[in-house]
Amino acid sequence: MKKLSARRRHPLAALVVLLLALACTGGLYAVFAPADKAQADETAQSLTIEEGKKLYTVGCASCHGTGGQGTSDGPSLVGVGAAAVDFQVSTGRMPAATSQGAQVPRKKNIYSQAEIDQLAAYIASLGAGPAVPTEEQYGPEGADAAKGGELFRNNCAQCHNFTGKGGALTHGKYAPSLEGVAPKHIYEAMLTGPQNMPSFPDTTLSEQNKKDVIAYLNAVNGEETESPGGLSLGGLGPVSEGLFAWVFGLGALIAVAVWVAARTAKAKKS
């Protein structure tokens, strides 16, 4: 007993007890803290979805149905994903105007980014779909603009023009200009295929491929980019170039012909 009592009064006994207490506290925190954090995250997500549902009921349900199932005035939103919502609402295409043309144009959006995130969370809760991309996915780091140019010319130039200036389609529809469009929205458009555009999921166009395409568009539409061929004529391709050649080229030939004829006639008189 005397030996046990001496050990308890050992100078290091207090330090040992303190270390054991810290170890127990750390172990208990490791066991219970993750569950509390997960529960807090789940609660926050539920609140975000609930707020998104309120916004949806006011601004979207009249066309897309109370549960996103779609109506005769708007398609179903089940399974379109958060990326489609972020693109359509951030670019002002949704909510659409009551009267519009062959397709919904881009306009100023009426929601804040926080409200768009809430709407996207609610729509995503209706069915699995593409998520909003991160900056790492569409950022310029590791992108190959030359490869992106090749991909763009093979998959996109037929509608958007080889420099992304846009172009006309059938029945009054058009491919919009990509100049000044945020990289995030270009990525989302490729991922979801809005309106007349086909979708390019990762199985068709990989995440790296999308990053490369965005890098190419940033390169050709940058503020300091100069046309290597001189005057770009709007970058619209053979139509504007052909018109320019027809008007000014043929006009110059006619002018030369008239000048030669006038000189010939004058020489004969003299």
TrEMBL record:
Catalytic activity: a quinol + 2 Fe(III)-[cytochrome c](out) = a quinone + 2 Fe(II)-[cytochrome c](out) + 2 H(+)(out)
Domain Cytochrome c, residue spans: 47-127, 143-221
Cited Gene3D superfamilies: Cytochrome c-like domain
Molecular function via GO: heme binding; iron ion binding; quinol-cytochrome-c reductase activity
Predominant location category: membrane
Binding site for heme c 1: 60, 63-64
SUPFAM superfamilies (UniProt xref): Cytochrome c (SSF46626)
Compartments, as annotated in UniProt: Cell membrane
The enzyme's E.C. designation: 7.1.1.8
Keyword terms of this UniProt record: Cell membrane, Electron transport, Heme, Iron, Membrane, Metal-binding, Repeat, Respiratory chain, Signal, Translocase, Transmembrane, Transmembrane helix, Transport
Top class in the EC scheme: translocase
Domain of life: Bacteria
Reported modifications of this chain: Binds 2 heme c groups covalently per subunit.
Gene Ontology cellular component list: plasma membrane
Transmembrane segments: 243-262
Signal peptide: 1-30
Membrane topology: Multi-pass membrane protein
Record: residues binding heme c 2: 156, 159-160
Subunit structure: The cytochrome bc1 complex is composed of a cytochrome b (QcrB), the Rieske iron-sulfur protein (QcrA) and a diheme cytochrome c (QcrC) subunit.
Protein's name according to its UniProt entry: Cytochrome bc1 complex cytochrome c subunit
